[in-house]
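User: quick one, fold this
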Amino acid sequence: MDMGGDTIKIGWAGNRRPNKLIPNCAVREKRGHGNRWLVGDLMLPSLERHDASSGALTRVDRISDYVGLQYRRSHDRGMVVNWEVENEVMQRCFHRSTLDPTGQTITSAAAVPALLHECNLLLTMPIATPSRIVKDVDENIVEKWGFNGFRRITTAAMARKGIEAEAMIKTANSATTSSASATSASSSIPSVAGTAVSPSPPPSSPCALVIDSGFSFSHVTPVYDGRPIKSATKRIQVGGKLLTNYLKEITSYRQWNMMDETYIMNDVKEQCCYVSTDFERELNAAKRSRKVAQRLRREYVLPNGSTVLHGYVRDASNTASAAASLPSDDQVLVLGNERFTVPEVLFHPSDVGLNQCGLVECIVHCVESLPVWMQPLMYENILLIGGNMKLHYMKQRIERELRMRIPEEYNIQVTMGEDPIITAWMGGSALCSHSQEYEREMQFVTRKEYEERGSHALTRKWEGDDDEDDGKGEEEEAEEEEAQDSGDDTMEAQ
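Assistant:
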């Protein structure tokens, strides 16, 4: 399970894709349906159900009006701060429909607790999560859900394995039917786990630089031999949430008041925005040339709760005829240079008043804090993960700016999977399906071990320094770690 601030990715080890991507929030309609909150996947625009009479699939919308959706989120700045919402979302994560979407293996809801008691959970969390939040997560997993064992790991540690697993999937898809059948026959994954991912070979270089830009923040984490180097990790407080809020502000100032339309404006951002490879040149061209401005223009038809349920991007090739075909009460949001000025905040946070360096500058600072021999190896293996990496031309922009900032003799290789949102999850899935690496890396902790040793001792075990025994009790260790967390500001890239 990859616990993200925006979505939770959950599925069985060995699968090629997660069973579900569950929104990590609860929403309520502004009008209609009273005070009913829709939690997790219940808020998704459409669900597929089998028609009992004909056997056909029908699409069912749980939300009748997407205008003015109210949100309750469990995460703030990448950390769990509202356990009431988080527990409701996790109820959906471990629901029968999530664990077994086909309904063929788990025959009843009563069988779910027994299944969880027999399973181990691999959980990814952001690097340098405060110890108090880590302790709360551990208690929730062990005491509330009763897993047989669990293991915490960072998304950065899983990034490379995920990209390699995706490359192996591409190779497998192009293989012959006979080889695919042989691979399926040799798999030991149970039927509920679906199709297994072939294990990937060991990496040729132990160094990797993972850039994780998600909902709440962006991390730059150097990884050596599968372990993140915490002392060199950098973080900027810019993520998808900030970009959506910035888009709401500028569109509200220039056109319609969209400050309460988080869901709609997030959809606008995902469909229309992109990263400019040369920001100054493109901005000046949009100001001077009417032809360039027209090419940039996108028209997003806003939902109205009646005739238009879901917003969509209208073809702007024939604006006059398209406008004439719209009902008179429909509203259109016109986007021009907003399409690339909003993502530019990732590279220049000072544009919105944040006294932090941009993403590429953060990468350079991170690498320069490493030993000299390690620096060229990091630039040769840059991995992009997180939802913001799905913005068009993100990879090209990072390559271009890095080339201007680092020595010419350094090679640059930037790699990104087809879906960077699930890259970390795919890494965990592939790792758990590789028996040798599974035994070496996955030091799962049982309930009995947790009760005997506690959360902080287990953290030291997973980080590899459990051999040191300072004779302190768990309470003293907790107080010491919390004091370090409150005074540790090395994660901020100022």
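User: anything notable?
Assistant: The radius of gyration is 24 Å.
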